[in-house]
Every structure is written in structure tokens, then in C-alpha cells.
Amino acid sequence: MDSKDQLHILQSAPGCIPFHERVEHSLNKPLSADKIEILQINIGRRCNLTCRHCHVEAGPSRTEMMSRETLSVCLELARMPCISTVDITGGSPEMNHHLKWFIGEVGKLGKRLIVRSNLVILLEAEYSGFIDIFAENRVEIVTSLPDYHEDRTDRQRGAGVFTRIIQAMRLLNKKGYGQEGSGLVIDIVHNPAGAYLPGAQNSLGVEYKQNLLNIQEVLFNTLFCITNVPVGRYLEYLMKSGNFADYMADLCGAYNPLAAENVMCKKTISVGWDGTLYDCDFNQMLNLPVNHGAPADITDFDLQKLVDRKIVTGNHCYGCTAGAGSSCQGSTVN
Ligand code: SF4
Ligand code: SF4
Fold first, then answer.
1. How far apart are the first and last CA of the chain?
2. Which ligand is nearest to the CA of 92?
3. What is the model's pTM?
4. Mutation test residue for ligand 1: of 40, 56, 235, the one with most atoms within 8 Å of CB
5. Would you list the domain boundaries of the chain?
6. Which whole-number Å values give the CA distances from 56 to 53, 192, 272, 306, 317, in the listed order?
7. Which superfamily, per CATH, for 33-230+263-311?
8. Alpha helices per DSSP H over the chain
């Protein structure tokens, strides 16, 4: 489904007040950026997996990859004092041949550096060296494990994926990841396996820790609960399974103004593989670049205009504002 079709479907969600109206009514103003402290970079859409919930619609046949030239501009942006965090995502970021170099350069800046890895790729000989590269550069790893039950994770991410994630976690634990006092952080993302909202992050985090330690003997730091945003393959799943209308009604019905005040786009700028600037990774996949007067190409980066920008929104944004809120760092409201 192309981005236009997706936007059309989202706009026609039955019973949903258009998101921009809802947010303007509850916040008394349009959704706008506050600052830019997180530089999120989607360095390519190729992936070794084809997960059912993937909003990127990533997979082995995708060819979009960020060039060294564009990564060099990202590196200059990462040097800006306002940037505290560089968050690298994909696809599978490891499949971009420039990642090793980029991590080394960003690592020298002493900023928080996150790589969103599916971990499965670290078991492949060609990519296993990233375990050392991540540890040497104090990279925080964020990985998706939709459930601590093997069958539920495999249903969403593919047969055998759960076992391979656990294998990779054991290797990372041996390196120090997840071990107290090591300073090496590995966080897990939980997202529901079906068309419903995630449970409470704190209690689910305890459940995950107990189960993964007692049964699988693996350690991690923090669990992030993320709501499935109806974009990409997840939107297709909702349509095919006949769950779209109910799911959108759930998201809209659970709209939380506090979560709207804390959405991640208020402090993030997201860079696409070709250097286009977006408010977030979901807007990337819907082909909605930054707008309202802010420059949308990395080579025209204008910090002040981007800090002052209004956010480009749509009904998919209800995924970030339902219940306890949802962001790349999990829930946004206690
Ligand atoms: S969810 Fe992550 S691991 Fe799965 S296909 Fe998408 S990018 Fe790849
Ligand atoms: S989907 Fe993107 S633009 Fe919309 S609220 Fe969430 S982070 Fe912001």
C-alpha cells in the first residue's frame, strides 16, 4: 500500500475526530516542536527480517540506504550542542556499510548513542563484529521482543526469531550488556501481538525481567511499551484482519491530553535515508516531511526554523497519544 492510500484510509477512520482538531482543542494550540535534542536517523530500509508489525515495511529486498555523504551531514548535526542523543534506526542498521564508521565518529562526541537492532542479525558471521563495536562505543541497544512467550514473538516476527534473539542476548550479556555496573545498556521494546493497546509498562517490565531471567537466563535494563501505530505493514494487517475500525476507535477513545503534551516529535528531528527531514519515523513512512515553513532537506538544515515548526500530524498520531502514550522510549505518561 503506498503512502497516499495509507493516509486516505487513516483519514476515513470511522468516528475519529481528525487528530489536528482533537489536539488543538485539548492543548488550545496546534502541536508544535519545543526543541531538538534527539537526532533520529533512519539509515536504510533493508532488513534481514520481515516482521508483521513493521511500519517501515522493511525486508531483504529493500534497496534504500543512506549514503556516506548524507551520514557525514548527520555527523555535523550530531555535533550541535543541542543534540544530546543520536538514535540510529532502520531497517536493520547493521546492513548499511557505513554504520561502523559512523558509530566510531559519533562515539567520539560523548553523546548518548542508540542503535535499534533486531539482534538476530548479530548471529550472522558478516555482522557479528558489531557486538564488539557496540560495546567499545558504549552504544545503547534497543531491540524488539514483542512477548516473552516464544510463540507470540515468532507469530509477529517470523519462525525461530525468539530463539535467535535470546541467543544474541546471551552473547551481549557476556560482553557486559544488561549487567549491573557495566554501563552497557540493552533495552527491550514490547508491542502488542494483536490489535489492542499495550499493558502498563512498569508491571510488564517486572514480568519480562522475571521470565527472561528465570527461564531464558538473560538480562536487560528497561522495558519500553510501544503502541502499534497504524502505519505500513501493521495498517495492512489491521485492514486484512478486519480490525481497523475497532482499533482506531480504541486509539481515539483512549486519547490522553497529557500524552499529547509529551509526544516525541516535540524534541526530535528524524532524518530519512535520502536526507529528507521529518517529525518522526512514522511520518517518514507516510511520506510527510516537515512543513509549515521549515526546510525539509538536511542540506538546508535551519535549527531555529525547525525548533519553531508546527508538527505535521494525521490520524496515525492517535497511536502516540492513547492511554499512557507511546514513543521510541516507551510510555510517556506515568
Ligand atoms: S520491525 Fe525491525 S526487524 Fe522487523 S522488519 Fe521492521 S525493521 Fe526489520
Ligand atoms: S506519529 Fe509522529 S508526528 Fe504524530 S504524534 Fe507521533 S511522533 Fe508526533
1. 35
2. 1
3. 0.97
4. 56
5. 33-230+263-311
6. 9, 17, 11, 24, 16
7. Aldolase class I (3.20.20.70)
8. 3-11, 19-27, 68-78, 99-107, 130-136, 150-157, 161-175, 201-211, 233-240, 244-253, 257-261, 281-285, 303-307, 318-321
Instruction: DSSP letter for 264, please.
Output: G
Residues in a beta bridge with 140: 114
Q: Is the pLDDT of residue 193 over 90?
A: no
> What are 36-66's pLDDT values in tens digits?
999 999 999 999 999 998 999 999 999 999 9
Identify which ligand lies nearest to the alpha carbon of 61: 1
Beta bridge partners of 255: 322
- Choice from 23, 87, 226, 280 to test ligand 2 binding pocket (greatest atom count within 8 A of CB): 280
What does the alpha-carbon distance between residue 58 and residue 64 come to, in Å, rounded to a whole number?
10
Rg (C-alpha) for the chain, rounded Å, is 19
DSSP secondary structure string, 43-104? -BSB-S---TT-TT--BTT---B--HHHHHHHHHHHTSTT--EEEEESS-GGGSTTHHHHHH
Beta-carbon contacts of residue 168 (< 8 Å; ≥ 6 apart):
119, 120, 122, 123
The answer to whether residue 334 scores a pLDDT higher than 80 is no
